[in-house]
Design a protein that fits this description.
- 22% of the residues lie in helices and 37% in strands.
- The chain is an alpha+beta fold and 228 residues long.
- The chain has 2 domains: 4-95, Ribosomal Protein L25, Chain P; 103-181, RNA Polymerase Alpha Subunit, Chain A, domain 2, CATH 2.170.120.20.
- It has a 6-stranded mixed beta barrel. Strands 10-7-9-12 form a 4-stranded mixed β-sheet, with no helix packed on it.
């Protein structure tokens, strides 16, 4: 396993204004904690952190370089700005390389489902990451799921995920990850057909009424040539 070193600086808990200024200067407020460890407030360089994450993945094991030495950690939580998606806070969890940890691993979809490609279906993503338990050195950066054989109404559950050495899936095996659904299309009647249907409506009632009125009028009118 390659050692990925990340420099950190201890900091005192600052005000919201101070934290905002730190972020503007390219720093990310962070906290380091773990079992039997007093939480420490930190500052890390945004560019250095993002470079490590982009190259090795979000579940990379980091060696946090404190002034007093290095400490192994993983990113337990990463908060991002809603608009810019820039990191605004990091929770680092202290770990032991000999103890298993619970982490969330992203799902990566491979292929195009048969039900989507050939039958006009849509793939719905139900769960985008799954929780696993593993030694820090066995944590996968992603879990690949091949969906190419899925037809309409079919899906993939956690039970069907690939078996990985040293990795245990924590969630319910029946948890649905993705499935393929059909798209209901409501057929519309052509405009000319609707017009034709309207034109074809019988007018028996109105016509009969007119005929009746005509008959009554004829009966009420005096016959031609009749004396008054």
């Amino acid at each position: 396993m390659k050692e990925v070193i990340l420099s950190v600086q201890e900091r005192h808990a600052g005000s919201a204004k101070e934290l905002k200024l730190a972020r503007k200067s390219g720093k990310i407020p962070s906290v380091f904690y773990g079992k039997g460890i007093k939480p420490e407030s930190l500052i890390v360089d945004s560019k250095e952190f993002l470079a490590a994450i982009e190259q090795y993945g979000a579940n990379v094991v980091l060696s946090l370089n404190f002034s007093g030495g290095k400490k192994a950690a993983i990113v337990k939580s990463l908060q991002r700005d809603i608009l810019t998606q820039a990191p605004i806070h990091i929770d680092f969890q202290a770990i032991s390389l000999t103890d298993k940890v619970d982490v969330k691993v992203p799902i990566h979809i491979d292929g195009v489902a048969d039900g989507v490609k050939n039958f006009g279906g849509v793939m719905e993503f139900i769960v985008r990451e799954v929780e696993v338990k593993a030694l820090p050195t066995n944590i996968p950066q992603k879990i690949n799921v091949d969906v190419s054989a899925l037809g309409i109404g079919q899906g993939v559950t956690i039970a069907a995920l690939p078996k990985l050495d040293g990795v245990e899936y924590v969630q319910d095996p029946s948890t649905l990850i993705v499935h393929i659904v059909s798209v209901a299309v409501e057929e519309e009647k052509p405009a000319d057909a609707a017009v034709g249907a309207e034109a074809a409506q019988p007018e028996v009632i109105s016509k009969g009424k007119k005929d009746k009125e005509g008959e009554e009028g004829a009966a009420a009118a005096p016959a031609a040539g009749a004396k008054k």
